[in-house]
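Example record used in the benchmark description.
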Amino acid sequence: MEAKELVANGSNREKKMKRKEILEKKKAIDEIIKAASSSHRDHLDSFQPFRHYNRNGLSVYLESGRGDKLSSPLKQHIQNLLKVNMEEMYGSEWRKEEKVKRREMVAPEARYIFVHEAPNENANHISTMVEKEMSFSNSIDNRGPIVGFVQFRFTIEEEIPVLYVYELQLEPHVQGKGLGKFLMQLIELIARKNRMGAVVLTVQKANLLALTFYMSKLGYSISSISPSRIDPLIGLEKNYEILCKAFDNEAKAIL
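Model output (structure tokens):
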């Protein structure tokens, strides 16, 4: 066998091994996402101390949910909360964005953490939004009203399994009491527990409070997949940044 043929055969073997490694890695990542997204899993089960938050004059407890299992009143309530908090931020783009968000909210892969205010904890402080929506109840089985939620998914970014936070929304009267930080700490624990390489989220550039919260208080940074990092000119045209917190060296290098 000539030297040239030996080199060619060696190169082919390397390519096959490389292809096999890539396929095995992809399969492993798919399995991680599948396991994390299992419909039977309650991600709060692993973090019982996080089921309750009782600080700064606020008492709430948490409950898990899925996008395809939301009742009509609950869907309406969280859509209203989203609108109250975000419509002004999006401005003229809200009508288009709201349609997208409504579809995302009820997707089978959407996962939720709902925040219930403890019954009678704040009977004298009913938010303006709830006053406007007295035609339906946002309580479930006589439990306290839902005053916030986190919507997230387990997905893949740049071949890295990540937990992507789609929404973190709180009613105005429970904001500024450490609850948002508490929920994001829980999200990061869930991500690590389920072998995600990072937590990723999108923030409107106009939402300076949110940008400060995530970057200064929680240690998130602008991701390499954010438009402004991909191309500064494209970044100028976009009204959002993609932030991330990576947990391992591979995720840090890529995201």
